Amino acid sequence: MDFSWSTPLRRNGQTTLPLIPNEIYLEIFELIAPTDQPLQEKHVETFSALALVCRFFCSVALPRVFERVIFSGDTNGNSIQASRKTKWARQIVANTEPAKSVALYVKECTFELWLDKEAERLLVPFATLYCKAMARMSNIRKVVFSASFVKKDHWEALAQLKQLDVLEFYGCSFIEDPPDKELTVRNVALFRSPTTFTLRPIATTSLRALKADDVEVVLKIVAFRQLAIDNLLLNQQIFDMEPLLQVFGHLPGLQSVTFGVSKNALTSPLVGKLSLKKLFTRLHSFTINGIGFFVLQHVVEMLVSTLCDGPGTLPSLQELNLYIDTASGWTTKMATLDIVSGRLNGMIIPAFPNVKCINTYRKFIRLEEGDWKVHHHSSTYATLCRITSRVGNFKTL
Question: Is residue 373 a contact partner of residue 386, using CB atoms and an 8 Å limit?
Fold first, then answer.
């Protein structure tokens, strides 16, 4: 479609009115719905109507209307809207204008609510149609599956999207073994989507960030081929350190690591293998989340020692986050930061000479203008302390 345009003409009857600069129109559109936010449902009709005013309005409004598309499998949803989506998808697949041109405006596509077991046989043909249509939306950068089955048709369509950057799965069921095709995706999220399949298309050489809540699924991905992932987030309370250590063994080039841990895992002998200098070569940030239980002081002391263990240094590390509640006895609480502070100059800095910030549950210390200062995370604690070059020597500002 030809969307060439000029500044809209303005008339009152036969009288030509002064032109309004396009920038003013754009500012008005921005006030209705900011371009950095998804277009809300209540604004879709408004922008659809604006697209009919003139070529200039159409060139601005139509891309906003079709920027984000949702293919829903909800059999109890809006049947009229579903019918329109189906008709549009068929036109895209048939390479019919204006549908095929409008498809190029889509930047984000979502499949949601496709897990109705009773209606699955009826839903599969529609899912296949929408997959074929999505494959023609060549400017898509993000695809989300939410409460959806995922079959080969989906993977085949994803493989056609050469600009795909973000791929997310929430509460999904992988019902078929994926094809051995590599995606271009750089950021993947896998939550509440367990699978016995190896998700080969995700194990792509372009993958840079992986978020998940199942370490076993992550292990299958990273073990499939050599990957260059920079950021790994495991939103899971790890009970067995062995698969996590195997994941680390496949990803020595990680720059950021975050994972949850159980009390039993922290007391496991395998924690002794968590030497950051031995595991990683360019790690910038390391985070352990152990909130919700108390850990005895000697366990935390051993953890800190283990993280710093090994010959040489890890100059890339700048941030260390230990969100752990520490107890010096069965009933006595103590601050994890006290343990960190006591080992700052003698152990932590020699191991990580460029570390600039260490976070614990309630407090953190940060290097500011050559001095280590203690801050409270909560705004109710206003006290700011300084740690001088001598360990344990605090100065209240």
Answer: yes
Residue 366: count other Cβ atoms within 10 Å of its Cβ. 14
CA distance 84 to 73: 14
Task: Express each pLDDT in 295-319 by its tens digit.
Answer: 888 999 999 999 999 999 999 999 9
Calpha distance 76→326 (Å, rounded): 50
CA–CA gap between residue 101 and residue 98 (Å, rounded): 5
- What number is the average pLDDT over the span 207-221? 95
Residues 6+ apart with CB under 8 A from 72: 82, 112, 113
Phi and psi (nearest 5°) for 306? Answer: -65, -45
Which residues in the chain are classed under CATH 3.80.10?
Answer: 68-220
Note the maximum CA span of the chain. Answer: 89
Cis peptide before 98 (omega within 30 of 0): yes
How many whole angstroms separate alpha carbon 263 and alpha carbon 267? 7
Name the amino acid, one letter, at 305. S
* 209 close to 187: Cβ distance less than 8 angstroms: yes
Whether the bond between 269 and the residue before it is cis, its omega within 30 degrees of 0, is no
Please check whether residue 325 is in contact with residue 361, taking contact to mean a CB–CB distance below 8 angstroms.
yes
Left, alpha or beta for 6 (phi > 0: left; psi -120 to 50: alpha)?
beta
The pTM assigned to this predicted structure is 0.84
Dist CA 72 CA 261 (whole Å)? 36
Domain covering 68-220, topology: 3.80.10
Helix 152-159 to helix 120-135 angle, to the nearest 10 degrees?
10
Radius of gyration of the chain (CA): 27
- Give phi and psi for 80, each to the nearest 5: -65, -45
pLDDT of residue 397: 29
Task: Confirm if 396 and 383 have CB atoms less than 8 A apart.
Answer: yes
